[in-house]
Design goal:
By secondary structure, the protein is an alpha+beta fold. Helices cover 35% and strands 25% of the residues. The chain has a single domain, classed as Sandwich (Jelly Rolls).
Amino acid sequence: MTMQALHESAAPFPARRSRASRVRRRAGDPFPHVLSQLPLFRACTARELKIVARHSIVLRVPAGRVMVREGDASREFLAILAGHAGVTQVGLPSRLLGPNEWHGEVDLFARSESAVTVTTLTDLDVLVVERREFQGLIDAIPGFRHQIIASLARQIRSK
């Protein structure tokens, strides 16, 4: 199936998620350690990682789901923990996202619409931080703020 056909047939990413789609975390689990492996969170302290963990959820998303649709208001920051997602712009393949890669920080930082569509190509475990929590993390965690700014700079430089 082509990426275009996948986008046309894909079910939209649900705005409200059922409990069944969440990857359960138990007290004392290694979730902050998982976060520390993501480049975006490497500069964060253990205390800051616990804050991020408290304000995020991990979802298991089936293959073929549109997670972000081009032109829609940006609502979430997504960091891929496992699996792959395809990114298209104006219906054309743009790039592939895999583990330790993320999407949405630019749109949330700028409070803009999404410039791309992101569709899961495989089953995906993804960290999700919603808009309000994302803004709070930027304000509360200097290491996170620095990494977001560095990410924005890299994207500007690559264009």
